[in-house]
């Protein structure tokens, strides 16, 4: 780490900070009182780190996770590219798009970089199948990757520059998310949008080679654009949020590159971002061990196309179904012991559309037992109206249970013959503790891209992602990810 960066960060860390202990996955911490006096230099210290951090600073494991993040994001962006939501966005924005600067993943159209970043961000999130930082439930890649891939088509960006920007963007949004989670999320903000704009602006600002003052202003302009409310969950509006965070970050970085000013303390000031949108402000989560501890190394990837809190139940249901060769007609009842967050986020009993099914623990468990999977097909309009699935979900009984953590589930299938089959999941597949393998990520990618881009192109795109560090121009990934 550069000596001047360490000195500034240590000086900032020594100032009074409002603290609340580091969050475990999905932790529900009590509200923390704000600092007696606003701490100084948080925004500027973060900006200093961002402009001085280089690719060579990244540990090997962080680089590898950055590559996995990219591969997963490209797959879900292609996979969601022909959803009705994206069709509507393309039709609505097409007449207003500027120069054809950037690709739309999985499609033939080209848009200006801000609209392309927005649409690709929407596309990557519409299936709720993207990456997840479990400590904050942020989906990090959507706001960041969609922004910097669009910018890469406007100006040459080497693969190493691209990967460094991607990691820095993910690191920034997750650290800022840590500083206000869970209080900020609990009151109704969609943290992927509100923190995601910081990831986008940090990554784009890095590619635009902003100086420290410009990056400070860019972060400030991002702070002025929080987007996303949890009320949107289950509608097209949810995927709007990471898309808008991506385009807002580009907007802020480009303005700052021309010296459009902002406050130098927009994150930490008394009337700044953190104090305005949360009752908790832990600035050590933003500045602590910068360049040494990486939140980006904790990114995870979904094996199931729905809210992360349902993954343990789906995992348990599929395991019991496969081990016992179960069919729906054998089942009397399915008891699911869960954390309160599960019903808060996924308590829809009778989803009528695929998007609603992604927020129904009843549907998720039922379809997992009936079809033995939890992919996008299991959260389609077809699946939520399937008579067998509908009948079984009426037998799913989720019960809020003391001692069950959000990442756990205790699931019991009661059979008509009196047998009880039980599975307790401590950590579901796709978690930090039980990560998806590279091969599983490739299988997921191939399933999502099948029928959208040519079969031969699927392999080429995956290889380009795995080898991004060797690319002369990262824009190659975008250009080869469009439909023929």
UniProtKB/TrEMBL annotation:
Domain MmgE/PrpD N-terminal, residue spans: 45-284
InterPro entries: MmgE/PrpD_sf (IPR036148), MmgE/PrpD_sf_1 (IPR042183), MmgE/PrpD_sf_2 (IPR042188), MmgE_PrpD (IPR005656), MmgE_PrpD_C (IPR045337), MmgE_PrpD_N (IPR045336), TAT_signal (IPR006311)
Domain of life: Bacteria
Signal peptide segment: 1-24
One GO molecular-function entry: lyase activity
Keywords carried by this UniProt record: Signal
Residue span(s) of domain MmgE/PrpD C-terminal: 304-467
A Pfam family: MmgE_PrpD_C
Family from the record: Belongs to the PrpD family.
Protein name per Swiss-Prot or TrEMBL: 2-methylcitrate dehydratase
Species of origin: Bradyrhizobium centrolobii
């Amino acid at each position: 780490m550069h000596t001047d960066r360490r000195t500034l960060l240590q000086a900032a860390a020594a100032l009074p900070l409002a603290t609340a202990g580091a969050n475990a996955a999905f932790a529900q911490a009590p509200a923390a009182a704000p600092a007696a006096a606003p701490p100084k230099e948080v925004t500027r210290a973060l900006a200093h780190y961002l402009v001085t951090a280089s690719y060579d600073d990244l540990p090997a494991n962080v680089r590898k996770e950055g590559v996995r993040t990219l591969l997963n994001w490209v797959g879900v962006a292609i996979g969601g590219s022909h959803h009705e939501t994206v069709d509507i966005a393309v039709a609505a924005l097409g007449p207003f798009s500027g120069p054809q600067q950037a690709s739309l993943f999985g499609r033939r159209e080209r848009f200006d970089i801000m609209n392309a970043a927005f649409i690709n961000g929407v596309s990557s999130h519409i299936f709720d199948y993207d990456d997840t930082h479990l400590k904050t439930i942020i989906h990090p890649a959507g706001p960041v990757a969609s922004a910097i891939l669009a910018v890469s088509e406007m100006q040459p960006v080497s693969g190493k520059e691209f990967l460094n920007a991607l990691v820095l963007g993910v690191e920034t949004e997750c650290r800022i998310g840590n500083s206000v989670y869970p209080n900020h999320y609990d009151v109704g903000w969609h943290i992927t949008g509100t923190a995601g704009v910081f990831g986008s602006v940090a990554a784009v600002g890095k590619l635009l080679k902003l100086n420290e003052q410009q990056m400070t202003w860019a972060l400030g302009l991002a702070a002025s654009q929080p987007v996303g409310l949890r009320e949107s969950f289950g509608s097209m509006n949810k995927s709007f949020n990471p898309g808008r965070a991506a385009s807002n970050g580009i907007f802020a970085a480009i303005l700052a590159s021309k010296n459009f000013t902002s406050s130098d303390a927009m994150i930490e000031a008394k009337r700044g971002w953190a104090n305005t949108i949360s009752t908790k402000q832990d600035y050590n989560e933003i500045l602590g061990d910068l360049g040494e501890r990486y939140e980006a190394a904790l990114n995870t990837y979904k094996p199931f196309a729905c809210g992360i809190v349902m993954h343990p139940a789906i995992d348990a249901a599929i395991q019991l179904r496969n081990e016992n060769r179960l069919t729906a007609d054998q089942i009397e009842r399915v008891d699911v012991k869960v954390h309160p967050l599960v019903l808060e986020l996924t308590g829809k009993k009778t989803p009528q559309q695929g998007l609603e099914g992604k927020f129904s623990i009843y549907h998720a468990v039922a379809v997992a037992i009936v079809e033995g999977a939890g992919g996008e097909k299991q959260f389609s309009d077809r699946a939520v109206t399937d008579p067998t699935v509908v009948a079984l979900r009426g037998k799913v009984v989720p019960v809020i249970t003391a001692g069950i953590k959000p990442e756990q589930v205790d699931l019991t299938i009661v059979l008509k013959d009196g047998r009880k089959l039980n599975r307790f999941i401590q950590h579901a597949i796709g978690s930090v503790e039980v990560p998806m393998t590279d091969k599983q990520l490739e299988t997921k990618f191939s399933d999502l891209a099948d029928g959208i881009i040519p079969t031969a192109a699927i392999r080429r795109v995956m290889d380009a992602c795995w080898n991004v560090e060797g690319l002369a121009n990262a824009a190659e990934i975008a250009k080869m990810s469009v439909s023929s």
